[in-house]
Design brief:
The protein has a single domain (54-245), classed as MetI-like (MetI-like fold), CATH 1.10.3720.10. The chain has helices at residues 8-30, 40-49, 51-85, 90-102, 105-116, 121-143, 148-156, 161-197, 204-213, 217-245. It is mostly helical and 251 residues long. Helix 8 (161-197) packs antiparallel against helix 10 (217-245).
């Protein structure tokens, strides 16, 4: 007889809830000061009492993360497709991509803030720079993973590069692309917050920075909880999209 398997949400709750309870018990048993480590109940109370402020800040950060992820996604896919059509460009383009990836974003963010102001544009650019490299590497690996027999078949039919790319290489690259998105999605939130630390008029990063400077750890941890929940939401949406788009792979 087949037994119904528990959902992933129930399994996640069964893991997270005991950890939060243990955290609460340790903080209360050791009487840890709130400015060192607040209890989860104190953090949730802070979040509930300031729901409006956190909601507004979350919308700002989520918007920056989504637009930055879209920018990184377009850049990564576009460069990968370019290299798929003209492989001779790979060495030069990948050298430039690695150079950008190796540059600390925390050093670039203040410069973009000085050049472009305290609006959302610097945050979107920083997020795009942080997320495009995993997309580029995975997408390129997927394009290069096409079955040689399928490629030979299309070449025997005199298919051009565009037709080979569209009919063989891109479908092969889709699982790799979603693997990259599972990394880049939560990473986009980190990019937005890091950019907000260098100067912003709103967002969860600004709340975290102000809370840190005032040693207001319940406010800081409340923002961290929201970011963690948003990261899990991003990941879940990407997994569901993968099941719809890459339907031929085993789940």
């Amino acid at each position: 007889m087949n037994r119904k398997r528990p959902s992933n949400s129930i399994l996640a709750l069964a893991i997270v809830a005991p950890a939060l309870i243990l955290w609460e018990l340790i903080v209360r048993a050791t009487q840890t000061p709130i400015y060192i480590l607040p209890a989860p109940t104190q953090i949730l109370s802070t979040l509930a009492n300031n729901a409006g402020s956190y909601m507004q800040a979350s919308l700002i950060t989520l918007g920056e993360a989504l637009f930055g992820l879209a920018l990184g996604l377009m850049a990564g896919i576009g460069i990968a497709l370019l290299l798929g059509l003209w492989p001779n460009l790979e060495r030069g383009m990948m050298t430039l991509a690695i150079l950008i990836k190796s540059t600390p974003m925390i050093a670039i963010a203040p410069l973009l803030t000085i050049w472009l102001g305290f609006g959302v544009l610097p945050k979107i650019i920083i997020t795009g720079l942080m997320t495009f490299f995993p997309v580029l590497v995975n997408m390129l690996s997927g394009l290069q993973s096409a079955n040689p027999a399928m490629l030979d078949t299309l070449h025997s039919w005199n298919a051009n590069r565009g037709e080979v790319l569209r009919n063989v290489r891109i479908p092969c690259a889709l699982p790799y692309l979603f693997a990259a998105l599972k990394v880049s999605g939560p990473l986009a939130l980190i990019g937005a917050v890091v950019a907000e630390w260098t100067g912003a008029s709103g967002g969860l990063g600004r709340i975290m920075w102000l809370a840190y400077t005032n040693l207001n750890l319940p406010y800081l941890f409340a923002a961290v909880f929201l970011l963690a929940a948003a990261g899990m939401g991003f990941y879940g949406l990407i997994v569901q999209a993968e099941k719809k788009v890459v339907f031929w792979t085993p789940s």
